[in-house]
Design goal:
This protein has two helices and twelve strands; from the N terminus they run H-H-E-E-E-E-E-E-E-E-E-E-E-E. It is of the alpha+beta class and about 270 residues long. The longest helix is centred in the N-terminal third of the chain and has 77 residues, at about 30-110. The termini are far apart.
């Protein structure tokens, strides 16, 4: 057993000695080519690893550059979208304003020689006591008391109080509003009165005067406040009364939807 172990050890030693002699011989007598080839074999694994690591690092750098570039492009795209949305809102508001006011502008040609001013409705007050509107135009813009307020050839009311920056309008549905009117294509005149409700009333129409549901009533221009030719509403119902007919009037204007009105002085 000891002999076999000794032979094994000496055999390994002899192998290493012979290998070293062989290598020394190749280095001394075989020239530099073998040395270069040996170095190349030893260097190849390191070059391979370096190539892989460098490629990975370059790939990571490129991915970071691509990610940063995409983030910048995304940020620029968000800015562009916000600008486009702002432009769309601006155009929509311009279109909405034009749609809301085109009929009013068309109507204004009827009174080219008179004062007329387009004003925005700031607030509405419709309750059992008052039916009023507040406009964003006052004495600084030339508004005066008793100027009338209209919308699309329809009578809305008249100015009752004026302040520097705004004014107050009493609506035709207010109980203080009384207008001399006539029925369209009929030789019938009466007095329209507001009732602080959704319907007005037409008074002083005798029984023998033919009034029908759907008839339109216009301002007759026989008072000092309201000029002739503005629509107030249509007949909603007709009932016989003790002396005169009891006639309800549906105003032509939807006061809850009013946004822009013309203030005019004839």
């Amino acid at each position: 057993m000891f002999f076999l172990e000794s032979v094994q050890k000496w055999g390994i030693r002899i192998f290493y000695v012979l290998f070293c002699c062989f290598m020394l011989y190749r280095l001394v007598f075989a020239g530099g080519a073998f040395f270069d080839r040996s170095i190349s074999y030893l260097s190849y694994p390191f070059l391979k690893v370096h190539s892989g690591v460098s490629g990975s690092i370059d790939g990571v750098k490129e991915r970071f550059r691509t990610l940063y570039s995409l983030k910048e492009e995304l940020h620029d795209a968000h800015d562009d979208i916000e600008q486009l949305e702002a432009r769309v809102i601006e155009l929509e508001q311009q279109a909405s304003f034009q749609e809301q006011t085109k009929e009013l502008v068309s109507f204004s040609h009827r009174y080219k020689e008179s004062f007329h001013l387009l004003a925005k409705v700031l607030m509405r007050k419709h309750d059992n006591k008052d039916h009023m509107l507040f406009l964003d135009a006052g004495s600084r813009k030339g508004i005066q008391k008793n100027m009338i307020v209209v919308s699309k050839n329809c009578l809305v009311g008249r100015i009752i109080r004026v302040y520097p920056l705004y004014s107050e309008v009493v609506c035709i549905t207010d109980h203080r509003c009384k207008v001399t009117v006539n029925l369209y294509k009929k030789k019938i005149e009466g007095i329209y009165e507001g009732t602080n409700s959704q319907l007005g009333i037409l008074k002083f129409i005798p029984h023998f005067k033919p009034v029908s549901v759907g008839d339109r009533i216009y301002s007759a221009g026989k008072g000092l406040l309201y000029p002739q030719g503005f629509l107030l509403g249509t007949v909603e119902s007709v009932r016989p009364g003790a002396v005169d007919q009891e006639i309800s009037i549906q105003p032509a204007v939807d006061f809850d939807s009013l946004q822009y009105l013309y203030v005019i002085k004839i």
